[in-house]
Amino acid sequence: xxxxxxxxxxxxxxxxxxxxxxxxxxxxxxxxxxxxxxxxxxxxxxxxxxxxxxxxxxxxxxxxxxxxxxxxxxxxxxxxxxxxxxxxxxxxxxxxxxxxxxxxxxxxxxxxxxxxxxxxxxxxxxxxxxxxxxxxxxxxxxxxxxxxxxxxxxxxxxxxxxxxxxxxxxxxxxxxxxxxxxxxxxxxxxxxxxxxxxxxxxxxxxxxxxxxxxxxxxxxxxxxx
Length: 225
Ligand code: DC
Known about the structure:
The chain is an alpha/beta fold. The chain has one domain: P-loop containing nucleotide triphosphate hydrolases (Rossmann fold, 3-Layer(aba) Sandwich), CATH 3.40.50.300. It is built from nine helices and ten strands. It has helices at residues 17-28, 35-48, 59-64, 97-106, 110-123, 136-140, 154-167, 174-190, 212-223; strands at 6-11, 31-34, 52-53, 56-57, 71-75, 81-85, 88-89, 129-133, 146-151, 203-206. The strands form three sheets. A five-stranded parallel beta sheet has the order 2-8-1-9-10. Strands 5-6-7 form a three-stranded antiparallel beta sheet, with helices on one face. A hairpin with a 2-residue loop joins strand 3 (52-53) and strand 4. Helix 2 (35-48) crosses helix 4. The longest helix is centred in the last third of the chain and has 17 residues, at 174-190. The protein starts with 5 loop residues before the first strand and ends with a helix. The site of 2'-deoxycytidine-5'-monophosphate has 15 residues, from helix 2, helix 4 and helix 8. 2'-deoxycytidine-5'-monophosphate (DC) binds at residues 13, 35-36, 39-40, 100, 103-104, 107, 133-136, 184, 188.
């Protein structure tokens, strides 16, 4: 039997990658993996273990403790996948603005990336997976059958992120969300280790003015050949 395809989706923060990736996974009957959640879980571990001080990460100590960090995805009571850090459901806790900043910082560390990339490759080794992130089409699955690079204007992305935080009952300020997002764009696309960039063979999707339904129509049209 042929291996099922891997679908790699990369792009800027808050441009709807996870909504799109989940919808594709549902339609195809594939597993969805949110690789950003794994960097967020490492950041949470760092905060809890006082390895993150203000804006700086105690890099050497975090690297030393990488073997103590176990991340996996398990179905919650409603049947949705949630992120688990060392056996604890941290799905809600990893979504705050503070964690976003620290996740961007820990994602610059080569050893952190090596650990998470290996885990991601193991999760996708049998195919039938949709994974979203920043380096999925470039580093994690450079031979993915389908690669999509998503983008949208910063203001539209900030509004979406703001709405998402509010919907989760979290405190949010639009200007702060926008500033945070622009900082992360800069960090994610200029870092030395696996910077965010369009992978060879990726198709660009600018969804600034598309609804989730429009995106699925685009996907079907693009890949129904
Ligand atoms: O997609 P997200 O916003 O949840 O990602 C959180 C941070 O992790 C983001 O700043 C970029 C980083 N990240 C990464 O470097 N590589 C990935 N494959 C996924 C996320």
